[in-house]
Design goal:
Number of domains of chain A: 2
Shape of chain B: globular
Strand content of chain B: under 5%
Largest interface: A-B, 24 and 38 residues
CATH class of the largest domain in chain A: Mainly Alpha
Order of helices and strands of chain B: HHHHHHHHHHHHHHHHHHHH
Order of helices and strands of chain A: HHHHHH
Largest sheet of chain A: none
CATH superfamily of the largest domain in chain A: NADH-ubiquinone/plastoquinone oxidoreductase chain 6, subunit NuoJ
Number of domains of chain B: 1
Distance between the termini of chain A: 66 Å
CATH topology of the largest domain in chain A: Four Helix Bundle (Hemerythrin (Met), subunit A)
Number of strands of chain B: 0
Number of helices of chain B: 20
Number of helices of chain A: 6
Distance between the termini of chain B: 34 Å
Radius of gyration of chain A: 20 Å
Oligomer: heterodimer
Largest sheet of chain B: none
CATH architecture of the largest domain in chain A: Up-down Bundle
């Protein structure tokens, strides 16, 4: 095994363990600000995973959009909502059970897919920027979904403005 | 000219609706004080969007015309919509056009990625339209609708990922194209995508968000949300079931039967018209889901049913529009001062929803029962029949008061939305065979 492979394997397992711990801490934390900060760590871990998969553009987008914009927005929302920083001591039993069952189902499906799929593994890691290929795909094969996404954003923007606007 | 001719019909409809949205958004300042001009621009955009669809196949025509009808009724009610802030009418009109765009994309998309984006555009527009209603409840209902829509969308996106993994593309599922090694991954993917579409249909157990939205929003806008969502969801589920009957049919039949039972009991327990209509929509969604699981004949029946149901429910909500977002208790219908036109419209809608002949609702229910009997036999059809009979009990409860109102001389503003939806229901009642033939063509039968 080459030294690079060993390094990649070490980073992968380290980051994976950190993500699992951060994810569990996010769910278990009673303080929403702490939950949000644990989520930052989980999402940053996803960005590292993208780097390990040579998906440079996705990694940067993950940092900018999720770790940056969305988490800042989430922290603002938590801090601007009065008396909502601390979560109630215990969620209703039915809610806990349904959440646990949903999480278990997603976990089960993911593990099943991971084990049953014949994954194509490259002999050598992809050593070229992926942004150009992504750009070409977005402007050719996926141009229609790309344009429809702009309509979705327009609807979201109108919604945000009209709901937040003072009379 | 050649470029215009090469645009696929549904895309032409979408482009015209987007153009209408842009015009309204650019003129927001001027149009906020001119609701009639605003509604005219919206209506012209919707009528214009219907034209390119005429060149498409039967499925495109049914989908686009159904969504356009929902949009037209919603747009005609914009000037009188009960909004929290009345200066926001241009934004409401723009959201109706965007929501219609999303519904058309969901129903007619060539691949699932676009369909998913169409669904989310519709969901987002619907949530905001509900939120803009007058009073405190609409905002809370819209938030719940939005959160549950986001959860079902997450399931849909997960399903899309699994389908991509199994087939290597975002194409609509087709039988026999998947590698047997990946059939389980494909099946799970298809079911999750179906779950995402089923939220728009409001079947059990994906009904809490839509139920709140239908009862809390301004009636005209809630009617649009309900109608556009249902027609797009039925067409999308029909396309999904056509290509993936093995995992979808038993699930659709199961949730259809549970929804009929749940919706019927829920509607029977209600004491006011809007909540009764909202709960009964679950029972009707159950009938559609049941039919969708009954093969090609069932899918044709479901499309026939949804077209009639959508026009009828639009008539009911149009008749109730303009009187506020609050409840309409059964015992107080007479005191609401509905005009004779509105009372007549609501009467016709309730008779059709109850399936009383010769209203189109009768033919719609008959088509579903026929498909269910042919494909599933006695017991599932019996459940559907009992649901239909119970429907007569709850739909006809406000009828004596409404009939009294039709004889009263209560003056009111003109109600073009009621006339339009009422005329559509009457036409369908006169020519149900034509509508059923179009529905059969739409599913390729």
């Amino acid at each position: 095994m080459a030294a690079t492979d060993v390094f990649v394997a070490i980073v992968f397992y380290l980051v994976a363990a950190t993500m699992i711990l951060a994810g569990a801490s996010m769910v278990l934390a009673r303080n929403m600000v702490r939950s949000a900060l644990w989520l930052v760590l989980t999402l940053a871990g996803v960005a590292v995973m993208y780097v390990l998969l040579s998906a440079d553009f996705l990694a940067v987008a993950q940092i900018l959009v999720y770790v940056g914009a969305i988490m800042i927005l989430m922290l603002f929302a938590i801090m601007l909502t009065p008396n909502q920083v601390d979560l109630p001591s215990a969620a209703p039993q039915a809610q806990r059970i349904s959440a646990a069952l949903t999480a278990l189902a997603v976990f089960g499906i993911s593990v099943f897919v991971m084990l049953s799929h014949r994954w194509n593994v490259r002999a050598v890691p992809l050593d070229a920027p992926s942004s150009e290929r992504l750009g070409v795909l977005l402007m050719s094969t996926y141009v229609l979904p790309f344009e429809i996404a702009s309509l979705l954003l327009t609807a979201g923007m109108i919604g945000a403005i009209v709901i937040a606007r003072e009379e | 000219m050649n470029v215009l001719a090469s645009i696929p019909p549904p895309l032409g409809s979408v482009l015209i609706l987007v153009l209408g949205t842009l015009v309204i958004l650019l003129l927001t300042g001027r149009l906020s004080n001119s609701p009639t001009i605003l509604a005219t621009i919206g209506v012209l955009s919707l009528l214009g969007a219907a034209l390119p669809a005429m060149g498409g196949d039967a499925l495109t025509r049914v989908s686009v015309l159904g969504v356009v009808a929902a949009g037209l009724v919603g747009m005609l009610l914009v000037p009188s919509a009960e909004l929290h802030n009345s200066t926001q009418r241009p934004e409401v009109a723009a959201l109706i056009l965007l929501g219609s765009t999303g519904a058309i994309v969901l129903a007619t998309a060539g691949e699932l990625l676009s369909a998913a984006l169409g669904l989310e555009t519709l969901s987002l527009s619907a949530a905001v339209l509900v939120a803009l209603g007058r009073g405190a409840r609409p905002l809370e209902a819209a938030f719940r609708y939005f959160v549950l829509a986001a959860i079902s969308f997450a399931a849909l996106v997960y399903g899309l990922g699994l389908l991509l993994l199994a087939t290597g593309s975002f194409a609509w599922p087709r039988p026999g194209v998947v590698d047997p090694t990946y059939s389980y991954i494909w099946t799970i993917g298809v079911l999750l995508i179906g779950l995402g579409f089923a939220y728009k249909l409001a079947v059990f157990p994906l009904l809490w968000g839509p139920l709140d939205a239908y009862t809390a929003g301004a009636p005209g806008l809630a009617g649009f949300v309900m109608a556009a969502s249902k027609i797009a969801a039925v067409v999308a589920l029909a396309r999904l079931a056509a290509g993936a009957a093995v995992p979808m049919a038993p699930i659709l039949i199961g949730i259809g039967l549970v929804s009929i039972i749940w919706g019927t009991f829920g509607a029977l327990a209600q004491r006011e018209v809007r909540r009764m209509l909202a709960y009964s929509t679950v029972a009707n969604a159950g009938l559609m889901a049941l039919a969708l699981g009954c093969g090609p004949e069932g899918r044709a029946a479901a499309i026939f049913f949804v077209v009639i149901y959508v026009l009828t429910i639009l008539l009911a909500f149009a008749a109730m529009a303009g009187r506020g977002t609050g409840p309409l208790p059964f015992g107080e219908v007479r005191g609401e001062g509905l005009s004779a036109t509105r009372a007549l419209g609501l009467t016709l809608a309730l008779l059709s929803l109850a399936g009383i002949p010769p209203t189109p609702g009768f033919w719609a229910k008959l088509a579903i029962l026929d498909a269910s009997w042919s494909a599933l036999g006695f017991w599932p059809t019996l459940v559907a029949v009992i649901g239909g009979v119970a429907g007569v009990l709850y739909y006809l409860r406000p009828l004596p008061d409404l009939l009294a109102l039709t004889r009263a001389h209560v003056s009111s503003a003109p109600a073009p939305a009621v006339w339009f939806a009422g005329a559509a229901v009457v036409v369908l009642g006169l020519a149900p065979g034509f509508a059923y033939a179009v529905a059969r063509l739409a599913i390729g039968g």
